[in-house]
Each structure stands twice: as structure tokens, then as C-alpha cells.
């Protein structure tokens, strides 16, 4: 049986503060050395063991890939190899960095022609008009999948309204579980995440729901 240590409050799981997290007593991340952790999912069950360090390279790659994925912002041409190049070259470390990229920077990437770079840049620009639920899902908030994001955007027509609502109002909307509501509120309570949201909004990413 795996032994765990339960910590109450203040533990970060992928940029979200949770009230209860179990830390593995011996298993650590091969990339950054952090002890593995797990928290509760939307159904109240434990998630898989994972590295809780949000700045661990694989975590950064995962967040960037999620944002660009067809299920989220659908930035066409942004496959795993391109994500790795963008992250490893220090061009993109979070979602907002996509909207600072210049065509010349993209064209300088390995295997990228000038025409392909322009096409990729245009796809990034087009992603700014995606519906708000895709933005919410793409942020990678624990337990907020595409289904939860779409449901929430039926009750909260803007992401600003959702984040300002707080845990109780989100839960009372009846769209998601208490766990999801808490994770959203806790995620937005992190200054790093609030800054990311503001940067996305300033870049012109759509925060309004059109049709869900």
C-alpha cells in the first residue's frame, strides 16, 4: 500500500490552491525533483499521482499544448514538435505568450518556411475570436473539462463575470459540482493566474460567450 501524507491548505496543484492534497512519501518527479501529489477530481475521487510544480518543464509543455489544441483554442499546425520548439526557445511559456509572437520569430523555427510561419501566425490571430468556453477550458483549471466549461458559460456570459462570482455563486448556478466551483475560485485566487487572465484580455482574446 502506498503511504501518503495529507496536508491541509496552501498546496499548489497546477496553479490552483486546494484545501487537501496528498503528497507521496517517496515518488518524485524525474524532471524537477518535486514529490508527486494528488488531489480530488470533480467526482470527489483522487486524481492520478503527478508533479505539482507548475514550472516543471513537462507541466509547461502540457499547458501550452492544451491551449493550442483543437479541443481548446484550435491553433492549427501547433503540434507537439512545434510546442516543444516554442517552449524550449523561450518564446512561449503560457497561453498569453502566443499573442506576443511575431512572424519573424516563428519563421526562425526549425522546419518553418516564411509562408508556413504566416499561416501559423494567422491561426493564432484567429484563435482570439474563439468562444469563451474554449478559453476557460484551455486555461487548464483542474477538473474543468470542456463539458464543465460549456455548462458554466451558459450561466456566466463572460469570463470576467465567472471569475468575479466566487465559489458559492458558481456552485449555486447548478452547472458544476462544489469541487469544480472551489477549484475555479482557488485558481483565480492565485496572483499568477489573475495576471495571466489580464494579459489574455489585454491581448484581445474573446472573453464573451456567443453560443454554447
According to CATH, the fold-level topology of the largest domain is DNA polymerase, domain 1
Derived structural class: alpha+beta
What's the total helix number? 9
Please report the total strand number as a whole number.
3
| Uncertain regions spanning at least 5 consecutive residues | 1-19
Output the strand order for the largest sheet.
1-2-3
Index terms:
three-stranded antiparallel sheet, 3 domains, DNA polymerase, domain 1, globular, 212 residues, alpha+beta, single chain
Tell me what you see in this structure:
This protein is of the alpha+beta class and 212 residues long. It has helices at 57-68, 80-88, 103-107, 114-127, 132-138, 146-155, 159-172, 178-189, 191-203, and strands spanning 4-12, 17-28, 35-38. A three-stranded antiparallel sheet has the order 1-2-3. It has three domains: 1-54, no CATH class; 57-127, 5' to 3' exonuclease, C-terminal subdomain (DNA polymerase, domain 1), CATH 1.10.150; 132-203, 5' to 3' exonuclease, C-terminal subdomain (DNA polymerase, domain 1).
Topology:
Blueprint: E1 4-12, E2 17-28, E3 35-38, H1 57-68, H2 80-88, H3 103-107, H4 114-127, H5 132-138, H6 146-155, H7 159-172, H8 178-189, H9 191-203
Antiparallel strand pairs: 1-2, 2-3
Write a concise synopsis of the structure shown:
The chain has 212 residues and is an alpha+beta fold. The chain has helices spanning 57-68, 80-88, 103-107, 114-127, 132-138, 146-155, 159-172, 178-189, 191-203; strands at 4-12, 17-28, 35-38.
Amino acid at each position: 500500500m502506498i503511504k501518503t501524507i495529507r496536508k491541509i491548505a496552501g498546496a499548489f496543484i497546477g496553479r490552483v490552491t486546494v484545501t487537501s492534497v496528498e503528497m507521496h512519501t517517496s515518488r518524485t518527479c524525474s524532471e524537477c525533483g518535486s514529490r508527486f501529489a494528488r488531489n480530488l477530481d470533480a467526482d470527489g475521487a483522487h486524481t492520478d499521482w503527478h508533479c505539482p510544480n507548475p514550472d516543471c518543464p513537462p507541466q509547461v509543455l502540457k499547458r501550452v499544448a492544451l491551449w493550442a489544441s483543437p479541443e481548446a483554442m484550435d491553433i492549427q499546425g501547433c503540434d507537439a514538435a512545434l510546442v516543444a520548439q516554442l517552449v524550449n526557445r523561450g518564446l512561449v511559456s503560457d497561453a498569453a505568450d502566443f499573442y506576443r509572437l511575431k512572424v519573424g520569430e516563428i519563421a526562425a523555427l526549425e522546419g518553418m518556411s516564411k509562408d508556413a510561419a504566416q499561416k501559423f501566425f494567422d491561426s493564432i490571430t484567429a484563435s482570439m475570436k474563439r468562444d469563451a468556453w474554449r478559453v476557460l477550458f484551455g486555461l487548464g483549471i483542474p477538473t474543468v473539462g470542456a463539458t464543465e466549461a460549456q455548462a458554466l458559460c451558459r450561466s456566466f456570459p463572460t469570463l470576467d463575470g465567472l471569475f468575479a462570482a466566487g465559489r458559492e455563486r458558481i456552485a449555486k448556478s447548478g452547472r458544476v459540482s462544489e469541487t469544480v466551483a472551489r477549484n475555479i475560485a482557488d485558481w483565480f485566487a492565485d496572483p499568477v493566474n489573475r495576471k495571466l487572465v489580464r494579459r489574455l484580455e489585454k491581448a484581445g482574446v474573446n472573453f464573451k460567450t456567443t453560443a454554447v
